[in-house]
Amino acid sequence: MTAVVFYPIAWLGKTTMNGAENIRRSGGILLVMNHISHLDPPMDAVFVHRNGRVPRFLAKASLFRVPVFKRMISGAGSIPVYRESASAGDSLVAAREALDNGKLIVIYPEGTITKDPDGWPMRSRTGVARLAVHCLENDVPVITAARWGTRDILHSYTKKFRPFPRKKVTFDVSEPVDLSRFKGRELDNDLLREVTDFLMTRVREQLAGLRDEPAPDGFYSPARAKKKSAGTDG
Fold first, then answer.
1. Which residues make Cβ contacts (< 8 Å) with residue 123, sequence separation at least 6?
2. How sure is the predictor about 232, in pLDDT bands with cuts at 50, 70 and 90?
3. Helix residue ranges per DSSP H, 114-221
4. In the chain, where are the structural domains located?
5. Buried b / exposed e across 37-61, counting CB within 10 Å, b at 16+?
6. Do 211 and 148 contact (CB within 8 A), yes or no?
7. pTM above 0.90, yes or no
8. Beta partners for 16?
9. What residues does the Phospholipid/glycerol acyltransferase domain cover (predicted)?
């Protein structure tokens, strides 16, 4: 069912791929990506599937309460993320097990579509670092990828949907990330933030290459932007 729905959606974009050969055909992989549109999951799913793998997404638990969509993403092996609840850690446990069992996990560390007005990655959650450290300890490759073009089709904040003419959607996939500098360090908040920013800086650099423009310094923070706006209004 997921393939029947997602492949026609993916047709909305004229896809080009750089570095797709870095997605090996077997074994666990953690694929770290940016998030710019509601079209990203179906586009990314088809992109991964075309390269010989079945993607398992870490997805917001609320999506699993939508009747038809629940059956689709559950059947595809997606993992619900319960934020700020007693079950919050369950998703990471399930993701670690999937990685150890040779599955490919797709994660959007930002946790939602970026709120950066220009579409650059914003400050991300550190769950990706916990999974990356697990990968480091168990010789599971971590790969970063950027994707650009889906927002030109569906801008999820302005609600503009422009399917025609078909837009170019480009993917850039890295070689496995060298995380050896973090090996053996204590798993504390400083390490989690450092690993998270390290991975998302790579994603941001890849995105800058796709956009052919320089990336901004640092990551957009909705909380800081809100505070700054409130100070200006005052």
1. 110, 219, 220, 221
2. low
3. 127-137, 150-153, 189-211
4. 2-233
5. bbbbbbbbbbbbbebebebbbbbbb
6. yes
7. yes
8. 170
9. 29-150
Q: Which two tokens stand for residue 134?
A: 């697990």
Within 10 angstroms of residue 141's Cβ, the number of other Cβ atoms is: 19
Report the distance separating Cα 177 and Cα 92, nearest Å.
20
The DSSP result for 165-180, as a single string, is SPEEEEEEEPPPP--G
Question: Closest by alpha carbon to 140, among 17, 20, 21, 31?
Answer: 31
Beta bridge pairs of residue 148: 170
For 2-233, CATH gives 3.40.1130.10
Q: Which residues contact 64 (CB under 8 A, 6 or more apart)?
A: 70, 73, 74, 78, 80
**Residue recorded with tokens 């949907």:** 161
pLDDT of residue 3 exceeding 90, the answer is no
Question: CA 10 to CA 81: how far, in whole Å?
Answer: 25
Q: Is residue 86 scored above 60 in pLDDT?
A: no
- Rounded Cα gap, residues 196 and 213, in angstroms: 23
Residue 91 CA to residue 193 CA, distance in Å, equals 19
pLDDT in tens, 24-74: 999 999 999 999 999 999 999 999 999 999 999 987 776 666 666 666 666
pLDDT of residue 213: 97
What are the phi and psi torsion angles at 31 (to 5°)? -105, 115
Q: How far apart are CA 26 and CA 23, in angstroms?
A: 9
